[in-house]
Amino acid sequence: MKKLLILIWLSFWLLALTWCNRWPSEPYVIENPTDNFQEYSQTWLDAALATWDNVVVYFWASRCPWCMALKKDIIAKSDTIPDWITILAADFDNSEELKTKYEVTKKHTTVYLTPDGTVAVKNTNKEHSLEDILAGVEWL
């Protein structure tokens, strides 16, 4: 009986994890966007590049706990982002064109763009806080 309960418990968690990874992202809107942290749009990207900002495109998914933790950290500390850096949050599940453009295959990916719009660095599962992202921009 004990083995059966363990098997049922393990099966439940296996199904739950599989279901979570296939479920599309729920919107998580930035309530108080700033000039330095916005949901991705071509308009915001163009504006940032026009002022020669370094841009970080952050791919997130609401089903990814690490993605959501990082996005919440950025929101909480967005007032500390330097004026010359713009972070744009792109929904991994709803950004097929962007994923193709930047060759992104995993959620929780950050793509660092130089002020001329070229990809300088692409990281997956490296950044866990706003400080990590800002440190990555500083050595571009």
Supply the key terms.
Glutaredoxin, 140 residues
Explain this structure.
This protein has 140 residues and is α/β, with parallel strands linked by helices. It has a single domain (25-138), classed as Glutaredoxin. It has 5 helices and 5 strands; from the N terminus they run αβαβαβαββα. The protein has helices spanning 2-22, 42-50, 65-76, 96-102, 130-138; strands at 37-39, 54-60, 85-91, 109-113, 119-124. The chain has a 5-stranded mixed β-sheet with strand order 1-3-2-4-5, sandwiched between helices. The longest helix is centred in the N-terminal third of the chain and has 21 residues, at 2-22.
> How do the SSEs run, as a string of H and E?
HEHEHEHEEH
Estimated share of beta-strand residues: 15-25%
Largest sheet: 5 strands, mixed
- At the fourth level of CATH, the homologous superfamily is Glutaredoxin
Summarize model confidence as the mean pLDDT: 81
> Number of DSSP helices?
5
CATH architecture: 3-Layer(aba) Sandwich
Count all strands and give the number: 5
Helix content: 40-55%
How many structural domains does the protein architecture include? 1
Q: Over all CA atoms, what is the radius of gyration?
A: 17 Å
| CATH uppermost class | Alpha Beta
The helix-and-strand class reads alpha/beta
Shape, principal axes of CA atoms = elongated
Strand order of the largest sheet: 1-3-2-4-5
CATH T-level topology: Glutaredoxin
Parts with pLDDT < 50 across at least 5 consecutive residues = 19-25
Ends distance: 59 Å
